[in-house]
Amino acid sequence: MENRFSHIASLIGDPVRSRIMWALLDGRAYTATELAVYSDTSLPNISMHLNKLVTANILSVKKQGRHRYFNYSRPEVSYAVEALAGLMTTSTIKDQDLPEEVPVRFCRTCYDHLAGKVGVAIAESLVRKKYMVVSKQDFKITRKGNLFFRSLEIDIVRLQNEKRAFARPCLDWSERKDHIAGALGSAMLNYFLAKDWVRKTKNSRAVIVTAKGRKGLLTGLGVDV
Asked: pTM of this prediction?
């Protein structure tokens, strides 16, 4: 077990591979060429790193036509990457990096769910309104919460039967508080996107909260963004 852990840690800890892992946090699948550009390295070098991550079952690869797309092999990988980011301290962030980071800290995707200030505020509101209660390792939905999510056409029973964590607290690296990961977090993000409450941005994990979304979050959840 210790040797296996050391192997995984060394794989993720490599500078090039860590950039690959960070890039994939936006939930999109990327080609080797795209990841090479992001990581500022050559195609042969990125291919070597990707092969190691796929072999270790950290990444998966899917073929579509002539292209091969890489992504996390399972949601738990994204939780691990986000948790590692939580080890960063404010002293490690340079002042010149702050303007670029502001939109990402406000609202972003963490793989397939919302994170940042908005994601944390939503989690806190759901607990405050007693739609959820905090357990040791997950969030539990109350009877009141079941009715609320039903009003959003989110099927709690179906989500609980999925082969993944249902509602997992995910420590937010920028807020240092939990947002909602797992099947419920993914379903909520899909709902917000479908209702045009939030919009993804190109080439960034930052998410825009629309005027419609600000109103919806305020009236529906009491979240003032």
From this structure: 0.76
